[in-house]
Amino acid sequence: xxxxxxxxxxYGRLAAVDDVSFTASPxxxxxxxxxxxxxxxxxxxxxxxxxxxxxxSATVLGHRYADLPNPGLEIGVLLxxxxxxxxxxxxxxxxxxxxxxxxxxARVDESLELVGLTRAESRRRVRDYSLGMRQRLGIATALLxxxxxxxxxxxxxxxxxxxxxxxxxxxxxxxxDGGTVLLSSHLLAEVEMIAxxxxxxxxxxxxxxxxxxxxxxxxxxxxxxxxxxxLGAALAGAGHHVTPSGDAVLTDAGPGTAGRLAxxxxxxxxxxxxxxxxxxxxxxxxxxxxxxREAVGSAPIPTGxxx
Amino acid sequence: xxxxxxxxxxxxxxxxxxxxxxxxRRLVGVELRKMFDTRSSFWLLASIGIVALAAVPMVxxxxxxxxxxxxxxxNTIGYPWSLMIPMVGLLSVTGEWxxxxxxxxxxxxPRRGRVIGAKxxxxxxxxxxxxxxxxxxxxxxxxxxxxxxxxxxxxxVSAAEHLFLTLFQAIGMAAAFTxxxxxxxxxxxxxxxxxxxxxxxTLSSMLAGAQEWYxxxxxxxxLTHGQLSLFAGTMTGEQWAQLGTxxxxxxxxxxxxxxxxxLRVEIR
Lengths: 307, 268
Fold this sequence. Notes:
Chain B: This is ABC transporter permease. The complex is a heterodimer. Chain A is of the alpha/beta class.
């Protein structure tokens, strides 16, 4: 359980985090989504007691992070997988965490096995690790104390497709066991696939939040026909909202309704599907366009949607 | 009841477990281990050992056999060590920033003062252990050299002087540790320490020679001045007062200000 209440962090006049409030609940994966520089990492650093808030509060299991007597046993934190001393071996990195928390030495091997790092790999210096291996080591460190809350900043970075799949299964399993997972990402497809709840942030402010299914319920249908203008007219004539999208249209009518309307108008439909993959992406771009650093032009910015 | 169900109930609990705070003694153990478990610390340790082992035969080889005394060994090992030993404490602090390990360290122990306190305890322990080793190696070298020359070994360092030499090393360590806390960057703090240990004493004595007024105040403002009087082995009441004044000025004040900043600074 993570509760963020009216959290604000100012650097001089710039509000990196501006009145952010949300909750990450037990048994659910909460995706913290936003473009780079939106304030995700700052929020997570405040949550983990590594930065101080200008105002507002962030609590883990009802307590300020800094007030937890042995935080590693309550909450596993991975904010940056590359922030590990390159001169230590992976195993030594885990041994230090295990000793700090006062855990039995056997936890080190258990964690290595859990994240799929071999014994030989664990004896190499972290400097020689790929980013994917560092992510696995960081996850192992976070899970070492068998916490009930996990906070991960961009955990999919540097992982190959199989690694991303592994990470997804691991987080899903953790949440299904009753754990709380909060992960940040700028990869929309990744979040859409795993998160039960989504908190979307842009320029330090929450722009949308709720269960993923609810946020996606507004997803639209993509219809393509040879005569797009007539198709648009047919859909609009039946009272549906229509947005042109190249040589197709997006509508808030369901696929069945859209298909029947096109059939009624005598139009041959060449493509008909829910715009699922693009749904959240559209919303993401739309919601953050006003506040995003990059001016979002007419051309959609390629994201990780294809991953 | 299956394990899965057990974990489920455990994880679903939304209040913290009743855990004891991480004891200070455990933090000291971890920080001590961190001082010596990286590749760079291995080489630092190795070169400290090589310097000491090279110093003993060098004294025996280059000094006229009749002149060899215990103090020669102590100084030949102790002087290079006064440059090297403080780096152990310095890197232990700056590494948290320069190697970004602090992101993990301070996430496990949010009360940063306890981590730095543990590092300081380790640094003090390193000085004491190093000096014990320095005296032991020197004694062994002295006995060996006397046996080779066929004379009685000369023990010319008093008990008080042993303490002075240890304090000399401790001040070097304290200066390096203070620079590390204030600067929080390995290259900056290392440069700072070498300026303190090598440049300041020379500049200070040159200035004292050229400007009479500075010659009078130097002992009251230059920490290395007091440090070197410890090395000389005699300390008057005034010299203790001067050492105390400069220690407050250059160690206590910067350390307090540096710690205030360190406790609040954002860890990235």
